[in-house]
Amino acid sequence: xxxxxxxxKVNKKxxxxxxxxxxxxxxYNEDFENFIANNIGLITEITxxxxxxxxxxxxxPENIEHLSFFPNGGGWTYFKTYDIKHISKNKEDLTVFLTAxxxxx
Length: 105
What we know:
Elements: E1 20-23, H1 30-37, E2 41-47, E3 52-56, H2 62-65, E4 76-80, E5 84-88, H3 91-102
């Protein structure tokens, strides 16, 4: 007799401090949207029962760093967990997604 495996709910990976992320957020500023969609961020803090995450970006252009999205400069800002498009412990894993997007694969 064959057994049918019971349906299991697969949980999305929960973000951890030190994980790398690719984000997607719709805002009024197209430059900011393009920047976060095409750059890898590092999670530096998780607050409010894992709903808000603080993400640090490196090499932020000056025209974007002065926006209200980056309080006090420094290249970090807050996002919600639902803004996460891809998450990984390794930065190299996410570069595959950026390369595929760049070459439209």
